[in-house]
Specification:
Elements (H helix, E strand, L loop, with lengths): L1 H11 L25 E2 L5 E5 L1 H22 L5 H10 L11 H19 L2 H17 L8 H6 L11 H19 L3 H17 L14 H13 L2 H12 L37 H18 L2 H17 L10 E5 L5 E5 L15 H18 L2 H15 L17 E2 L27 H11 L5 E4 L2 E4 L4 E7 L5 E8 L6 E8 L5 E6 L8 E4 L2 E2 L9 E6 L6 E5 L4 E4 L11 E6 L2 E6 L12 E4 L5 E5 L6 E11 L15 E10 L11 E2 L2 E4 L3
Parallel strand pairs: 7-11, 19-24
Antiparallel strand pairs: 1-6, 2-8, 3-4, 5-23, 6-7, 8-9, 9-10, 10-15, 11-14, 12-13, 12-15, 16-17, 17-18, 17-24, 18-22, 18-23, 19-21, 20-21, 21-22
Bound molecules: zinc ion.
Zinc ion binds next to helix 13 and helix 15.
């Protein structure tokens, strides 16, 4: 016990020590008493070849450097605001209130790159920026550039995003310290966190509405884990408890359309039954609450998270793992909401909002639930998000972005001149004035290998598949080295070779995706006799030796996916999915004379899987025959005549790769033609 305390103190004293070897995860839950699956250290797993290695390289070589140029240049504004404050001169703030937070996300992505490529230039660039940020910070620790430059009243309006900025500052700084051992960024974050503690710990009711876009909850728990200073956990819990603590009524700090359910403020979280309001705000709250639960073990919080998860994932999530059924709408309590959850099973395709950040935050919440429960279903959601609704946010090249990610695009479907259309685009663009999603996706791609494995008390869990090398330590401190080889998601075969393992038996847990019924596991060529169930972890317990080979063979059938009959918008329509990848048909693969709404799919269509290394960054297309309806009528309602169809040989492309061939129409769901 004494030794453990000493080790904690050593880590807490901001000294990187080999004894803290398992304390450098994306979240450091090594000592968290209520977490079943713990993080590996950042950098312990690295993609080596295949799908995620390619995406990591794209992030390293194109996406993240390009974002740096934007944020540091005259378009993205973010760095200029810090530089202006640091200079002590007067001037105008550029960009949005939340650009500070987005800039910190980009810094976080740079730090993850460094953890894996050890490029010293990254550290030098970050040091230069950190010095400027330090100078921009107010003497009392406050830091939010727009409010400072404009001389606005601190915490005068939730839309200033001050806590969002603080949250990303603290998260980015903790990761920087964890990976580099440097304290320059962490000192700024600590000063800011101490300021937050002084401001919010007294729980002034006037400030009780300031939970807006609460990235600070996750951040404060992580700062507690980094420093072992309990007051940061206490403050994180205060931010959770603030929910629903004040009447849902007008207040000068909250614009009318940001009240109540929009901001998850109508109901105390322990009483909440539904996922409500703005999805990013919601998911950051739920993910932060999961982090608090990991430390406190409060059952009422977990019960609420279970209910909320079921509401979000089982009744409000798209087949792509996306969330946010509408840009503008109303909650069940008639609170105006936007970029938000709507009613159960209300799932429009064309007008779906599905902000890239919302989809990513769904994966972040599920990763935390995976840690708490140790159940594969949470990993399934992470995977569904990553291959579909996260990755669609960036072009194959890495320089153009979607903010909203509908499941269908028709010509003229988006009118950017219409009031309220600010973030919807009909093709990816290099910059959107609301630029939160690109750095969020960048940091997620840069750190994804850290989500690919977890440590259980008895071994290791394989959460995500992809060519990689793992060099880590099990929770008992014994070394473990694995190599994973696979062409997943285009092929269902995964080969894991043990390079180094302790001599006593331990578990290797393999996530069997919910679509992968009939998966087969072999150990050194012999069939595994234990349970292999879709949607569960298969746990192989044995004494492992160097050279042992585990093979997992997942059947990669082309599946037609229908929705629950209560989803009116997809009645008698199907999506096509193979493995974890959802497919779409887009107009470059249709005759010019037809449009996307002419496309039908016969229920017995046989698709041929065709891997094309030089197409859309290297994807498997599904080649087959679609049916094009010829008889266009007119009028909002028309008398039905017998429909005429023309077969058309074409291909479906992965949804994430659509819109890389110019402006296009696209749909995931297609009406089904029955032959009977
Ligand atoms: Zn965003």
């Amino acid at each position: 016990m004494k030794l453990k305390k000493l080790l904690l103190a050593t880590c807490g004293a901001l000294v990187i020590n080999s004894a803290c070897a398992l304390e450098k995860g994306i979240v450091n839950n090594t000592d968290s008493p209520y977490i079943k699956l713990k993080s590996i250290n950042i950098g312990d797993a690295q993609w080596t070849e295949g799908f995620w290695a390619d995406k990591w390289k794209m992030a390293e070589q194109t996406m993240i450097p390009n974002l740096g140029e934007i944020f540091k240049g005259p378009v993205g504004f973010a760095y200029d605001n810090f530089k202006l404050l640091a200079s002590g001169k007067k001037g105008e703030a550029g960009g949005k209130y939340w650009h500070d937070g987005d800039f910190y996300k980009w810094m976080e992505s740079m730090t993850y790159l460094y953890a894996q490529n050890k490029d010293e230039k990254i550290l030098a660039e970050l040091d230069e920026i950190i010095a400027v940020i330090g100078k921009a910070q107010a003497d009392d620790g406050y830091l939010s550039t727009h409010v400072q430059i404009r001389g606005l009243k601190r915490y005068g309006n939730i839309h200033y995003h001050e806590l969002y900025n603080s949250g990303h500052l603290i998260t980015s700084a903790v990761i920087h310290h964890r990976i580099t051992g440097k304290t320059n960024f962490l000192k700024i974050a600590l000063k800011n966190a101490n300021f937050l503690y002084k401001t919010f710990q007294p729980q002034d009711p006037e400030l009780a509405r300031f939970g807006f876009n609460p990235s600070q909850i996750m951040a404060l728990v992580e700062l507690y884990r980094e420093t072992k200073e309990r007051k940061f956990l206490e403050l994180a819990e205060i931010f959770v408890n603030m929910r629903g603590s004040v009447p849902n009524e007008e207040h000068p700090s909250v614009a009318d359309h940001f009240r109540g359910d929009f901001n998850q403020m109508a109901t105390p979280i322990r009483e909440e039954k539904d996922a409500v309001g703005h999805v990013v705000l919601a998911m950051y709250l739920y993910a932060g609450t999961a982090d608090v639960y990991g430390e406190t073990g409060e059952q009422a919080l977990l019960d609420a998270l279970d209910r909320i998860w079921s509401s979000a994932v089982e009744r409000k999530m798209y087949v792509t793992g996306a969330m946010g059924q509408a840009h503008h709408g109303a909650s069940g309590k008639y609170d105006m909401v936007h970029e938000a959850f709507q009613e159960d099973y209300l799932m429009p395709n064309k007008t779906a909002y599905n902000e890239t950040c919302a989809n990513i935050s769904n994966a972040m919440f599920n990763w935390r639930m995976l840690g708490i429960k140790g159940e594969a279903k949470y990993g399934d959601v992470m995977e569904r998000v990553m291959y579909n609704s996260a990755l669609v946010g960036v072009s194959v090249e890495g320089k153009d972005f979607f903010y909203s990610n509908p499941l269908r695009m028709i010509e003229g479907g988006i009118d950017p001149t219409k009031k309220g259309v600010t973030t919807e685009r009909d093709e990816r663009v290099p910059y959107i004035p609301v630029f939160c999603c690109p750095p969020n996706l960048a940091r997620t791609l840069a750190k994804l290998s850290g989500w690919s494995y977890s440590l259980s008390k008895d071994g290791v869990a394989v959460n995500l598949y992809g060519g990689n090398k793992l060099n880590t330590k099990l929770v008992d401190g014994s070394a473990l080295s694995l190599t994973q080889e696979t062409n997943y998601p285009w092929d269902g075969k995964v080969k894991i070779t043990v390079n180094k393992a302790k001599s006593s038996p331990f578990d290797v847990m393999l996530r069997i995706p919910e679509w992968a019924e009939g998966s087969v596991i072999k150990i050194n060529g012999k069939a595994f006799s234990g349970k292999v169930e879709a949607g569960k972890f298969a746990t192989v317990i044995r004494k492992w030796s160097k050279g042992d080979v585990i093979t997992l063979d997942m059947p990669m059938e082309v599946n037609f996916i229908e929705g629950d009959p209560r989803i009116e918008e997809v009645r008698n329509q199907v999506a096509v999915q193979r493995g974890p990848v959802v497919y779409a048909i887009e107009s470059p693969d249709l005759p010019k004379s037809s449009d996307i709404l002419d496309v039908y799919l016969k229920e017995d269509t046989q698709f041929k899987v065709h891997y094309r290394p030089d197409f859309l960054g290297g994807v498997a297309t599904l080649d087959g025959t679609l049916m094009l309806r010829n008889d266009e009528g007119t009028g909002m309602y028309r008398k039905l005549k017998k429909a005429e169809f023309t077969p058309y040989e074409t291909k479906l492309v992965p949804y994430f790769a659509w819109s890389n061939r110019g402006k296009a129409e696209m749909t995931i769901f297609m009406p089904l033609m029955w032959d009977k």
